[in-house]
Amino acid sequence: MILPIYNCFQSILKEKTKPIAEITDDIKTLIDDMFETLEVTENGVGLAANQVGKSYSLFIINVSELDEYKEMEKLIFINPEIISYSNETNISQEGCLSIPTFYEDIERPISVVVKYFNVDMKEIIQEFSGYLARVIQHEYDHLQGILFYEKLSAFKKILTKNKLKKIKTEIYTNNLL
Predict the structure, then answer these.
(1) pTM above 0.85, yes or no
(2) Catalytic positions
(3) Is 71 left (phi over 0), alpha (psi -120 to 50) or beta?
């Protein structure tokens, strides 16, 4: 089932999510529905549970549409924790399914080590780098109640304030909340 994606002005996206104690049929259905929802989005590669209204510490990633990741399986991160970040960073443009039409350059570490659980609740510790590391950090931030534009410098936040106000006005005008 395709789920509605909550926009950045809804309070659930500003709250820290709760850990998942066990994998129930409802959680498995949620994961399936999240992947189905992600498939119909334009340019979406990751989705956090709170973006679809569920306050669970869970996100999914599917980058198989991108040439360099064609062979990669869909990724499921349950109760993830980034346990280390590289010192080296890079700047790249990010967008978010919860903030349509808004893109900004964000600086992030180029690699991360993540501890997470799979759907069998098996603990995994794995290093990710490049684009995948960026996507993981973006989705992990969602679980912490952080939206990517909050990573901007104070000066850049001032410059983008009008863009966000315009998006908010469009959402309210079109009853998209």
Answers:
(1) yes
(2) 139
(3) alpha
